Amino acid sequence: MKFKVDQDICIACGACEAICPEVFKLEEKSQVILNPVPENLQESALEAEANCPVQAISHE
């Protein structure tokens, strides 16, 4: 499973990194630092996606 963060939408709130720091890192805006996401981290990454207040995270 691959994740991405839409840099035009991201507000750099840090929620994704707080939920799944193995996959997301907040720099100026959130970045995906592990792609594809291993199966053991997918549930946490999906939780981060669901909790993004501006829906900037997506997966395929």
Question: Care to describe what's here?
Answer:
The protein has helices spanning 15-19, 39-51, and strands at 3-5, 24-26, 30-32, 57-59. With 60 residues, it is an alpha+beta fold. It has a single domain (3-59), classed as Alpha-Beta Plaits. The strands form 2 sheets. A two-stranded antiparallel ribbon has the order 1-4. Strands 2-3 form a two-stranded antiparallel sheet. A hairpin with a 3-residue loop joins strand 2 (24-26) and strand 3 (30-32). The longest helix is centred in the C-terminal third of the chain and has 13 residues, at 39-51. It is globular, with a radius of gyration of 10 Å.
Q: Output the CATH class name.
A: Alpha Beta
- What gross morphology would you assign? globular
* Helix and strand element order: EHEEHE
Instruction: Assess the beta-strand content as a share of residues.
Output: 15-25%
Taking all residues together, what is the mean pLDDT?
98
Could you please say which CATH topology applies here? Alpha-Beta Plaits
* End-to-end gap: 6 Å
